[in-house]
Amino acid sequence: MPATDSPAKAELDRLTAEFFGAFDNRHGGPADVGRLRRLMLPGGVIVVTAPRYAAYGVEEFIAPRELLLSEGRLTDFHEWETAERTEIADGVACRIGTYRKSGLLDGEPYEGGGTKTFQFARTPDGWRITAFSWHDEP
């Protein structure tokens, strides 16, 4: 059952925007990938299907991205959602959408996009991401 204008949908929109914002290191500011520890359940699952399949736990996912976004290789980076569809059923939700990303990788323009899916659960502390996966366009 799609939700378009509910308090839960507004919270999921905010949570998703905060997720994308975790990777932002534009204007010389540090990315805050560590915030994923708060946005996700500790046992969350992360999967990428392309360009190369891999599956991660939360900490396995965070560590290399913190390094990449802080060591100066990937700068002026951000990614953002371009379209989405969210379905909410009681205390669970699913979101699928497209996104774009842009920055400088090793001093060269770096751009791309793809599809991301999120699974959410309403916990006693509010909505949290239980899993997400993505597929980058070639």
From TrEMBL:
Full protein name: DUF4440 domain-containing protein
